[in-house]
Design brief:
- The two termini are 16 Å apart.
- Among the domains are: 16-174, no CATH class; 180-237, no CATH class.
- It has a 3-stranded mixed beta sheet. A 3-stranded mixed beta sheet has the order 4-5-6.
- By secondary structure, it is mostly helical.
- Helices cover 56% and strands 7% of the residues.
Length: 389
């Protein structure tokens, strides 16, 4: 075994936090402990006893370095210190021997925090302090829970809540999401759906492991979902539009009557048709939305009546409404190249609020149609997997 492997085994990396994040966490802990110390000293003037608990330093690691931990939440933090402090004071009052009292306080604090769902490791230090803190702490009795415990906890919790809120705002502004458009969920389950398991499945697996996991189920699901999204993005980057486009493509010409366009949409259960010229060049696209948009400008009461009137051919020489595809089509139309990476095109769907993208060859002639469903199907294709050590 190499020296490097030995060192990695004995000194593994503790987190994936960047140096910047660690510095911010350290600064937040520094400021918070200073505020707790100053405020507590001012508040507890004239009261004999400690004004700052050493366990606040341990709590600052959880609150500011691993705030997503279940043990860093408000109730585990506040309840852990107060419940453990209560156990510690009771042991100090009822058990004369300090060694036995300290042992019972530590074990009792763990049991009490577990039963009350407020497991917070630094709480055990608070329980021990109540026993081994000397006459000054013993003389406080149960007042120890109010000053300094409750005061320290209240100030530290206020600082932590403010830090968490600021961190959330910073993440919302700076978080980068590769291929964001391609993996964003929409009402059509656009590309990314949730994990293939339920909360109950995850809860059962965690229960079967019968060990404490310092991470919430919500964070576990987010890790799984993001990893799946990255895999989808990698899969999209390997594919070309020509590999996943729908063929043969149904198209219409500028002069195709609206009744015929609508019939094709219904027959093939599609939402859009490319409009081409005689050279097979794409000059526009007609979608259901185009029909609705132009129908809304007609005077009939219901949408169904307006759509029926729009589709119906006018028998007179003059018409007060569109009659052919070219009059309602959307133009210019966004197209994709046959050899264009699917990852580039996928972003255009959500960015432009569209459902179809015509695919053209090097001569700009229509060769296929790319839809959101095509991209979703591409994401579901098996990907190459590299064996992991």
């Amino acid at each position: 075994m190499s020296l490097t492997s030995t060192l990695q085994r004995w000194f593994p990396p503790q987190s994936d936090l960047s140096g910047k994040s660690i510095l911010i966490s350290a600064a937040a802990a520094l400021v918070s402990v200073v505020l707790v110390a100053l405020a507590s000293r001012q508040t507890l003037q004239g009261i004999a006893g400690p004004f700052l608990l050493a366990s606040m330093g341990a709590s600052s690691v959880l609150l500011f370095v691993v705030p997503s931990s279940p043990m860093s939440r408000p109730w585990p933090f506040a309840g852990g210190h107060l419940v453990a402090g209560l156990v510690g004071v009771s042991c100090a009052q009822l058990i004369p021997d300090i060694a036995i009292g300290a042992a019972v306080a530590a074990g009792g604090a763990i049991l009490a925090m577990h039963l009350l769902r407020c497991m917070h490791p630094p709480g055990s230090a608070t329980a021990l302090l109540a026993v081994v803190g000397g006459d000054t702490v013993h003389d406080l009795g149960y007042q120890f829970l109010l000053s300094p415990v409750a005061i320290n906890v209240a100030i530290m919790l206020g600082c932590a809540l403010l830090y968490w809120r600021l961190s959330q705002l910073m993440q919302q502004r700076t978080r980068r999401r590769p291929l964001e458009a391609a993996i964003k969920r929409s009402e059509e389950r656009w590309l990314a759906s949730g994990p293939a398991f339920s909360d109950e499945d995850l809860h059962q697996v965690m229960a079967e492991m019968d060990t404490f996991l310092d991470i919430s189920r919500k964070d576990l699901k987010e890790i799984y979902t993001r990893a799946e999204q990255l895999a989808h993005g990698r899969q999209l980057g390997r594919l070309r539009c020509g590999e996943v486009m729908s063929q043969p493509v149904i198209s219409v010409e500028f002069g195709t009557e609206l009744e015929e366009v609508w019939r094709l949409l219904e027959k093939y259960d599609i939402r859009g048709l490319p409009v081409i010229d005689r050279a097979q060049h794409v000059i526009g696209i007609v979608t259901v939305s185009d029909f609705v948009h132009h129908a809304d400008q007609l005077p009939h009461e219901t949408l169904a009546e307006r759509l029926a009137h729009l589709r119906r051919r006018t028998t007179r020489l003059e018409s007060d409404k569109p009659e052919v595809a070219g009059q309602i089509m959307t133009q210019p139309v966004l197209t994709a190249r046959e050899d264009q990476p699917l990852s580039e095109v996928a972003q255009q769907f959500t960015a432009n609020h569209i459902h179809h993208i015509p695919v053209v060859d090097p001569k700009q002639k229509l060769v296929g149609m790319l839809t959101r469903e095509d991209v979703m199907a591409a994401c579901d294709c098996p990907t190459d997997k590299t064996p992991q050590d």
